[in-house]
Amino acid sequence: MKTLETERLMLRLWQESDLSDFYEYASVPGVGEMAGWPHHTNIDVSRGILKKFIDGGNEYALVLKSENKVIGSLGIFDRAPVESYKAGVQREIGYVLSRAYWGMGLMPEAVQEVIRYAFEELGVDALWCGHFLENDQSRRVVEKSGFKFYCDSKFEAKQLGKIFDDKKYILTKEDYKN
């Protein structure tokens, strides 16, 4: 993954020096839970997950340029083709944003750039995205980004020990071009 930029954001690979910023937003109750993981209860939890991000290389750190601060993450994940939708290369995106920056249009800005990158540079044929039924913030990002509703589903958040009602959306290369 290469570094991407928008007007207000830099999307880059994670670095060890991001630990403090990561813990700052990941430790806020309710932020991680909206994405299916428990908020971080201490900095060692963040340190362990940050190492996985660095080793995995499929998660972007979202850096707010004006503050030179990591305020969230956005991942592009491999995805097995959905049985009912056959397409070549399929990926799924997932994201989380610091609560302090909700409602500023930052995540739709980041998602739009990742969509461009996925279709124009990675050769993706279809992008998927989902959100828990009660996660209106994520639903708005999905809708603003051009994804189309595909199906209702269930998501097992193993770390939380819960199963959430979930909505899945798709954006095809053809829809992106149009």
What can you see in these coordinates?
There is one protein chain. With 178 residues, the chain is of the alpha+beta class. The chain has a single domain (4-177), classed as Aminopeptidase (3-Layer(aba) Sandwich), CATH 3.40.630.30. Helix content is 29%, strand content 33%. Strands 1-2-3-4-5-6-8-7 form an eight-stranded mixed sheet, with helices on both faces. Strand 7 (148-157) and strand 8 form a beta hairpin. The model has no long low-confidence stretch (mean pLDDT 92).
Structural class: alpha+beta
Q: Low-confidence runs (pLDDT<50, min 5 residues)?
A: none
CATH architecture: 3-Layer(aba) Sandwich
Work out the helix count.
5
Approximately how much helix is present in the residues? 25-40%
CATH fold node name: Aminopeptidase
Radius of gyration: 16 Å
Mean pLDDT: 92
Largest sheet: 8 strands, mixed
The first-level CATH class name:
Alpha Beta
Describe the structure in brief.
The protein has 178 residues and is of the alpha+beta class. Helices cover 29% and strands 33% of the residues. The chain contains five helices and eight strands.
What brief labels describe this structure?
single chain; 178 residues; alpha+beta; Aminopeptidase; eight-stranded mixed β-sheet; 8 strands
Produce the secondary structure layout.
Blueprint: E1 4-5, E2 9-13, H1 19-26, H2 43-56, E3 59-64, E4 69-78, E5 90-97, H3 106-120, E6 126-132, H4 136-144, E7 148-157, E8 162-172, H5 173-177
Parallel strand pairs: 5-6
Antiparallel strand pairs: 1-2, 2-3, 3-4, 4-5, 6-8, 7-8
Helix pairs in contact: 1-2
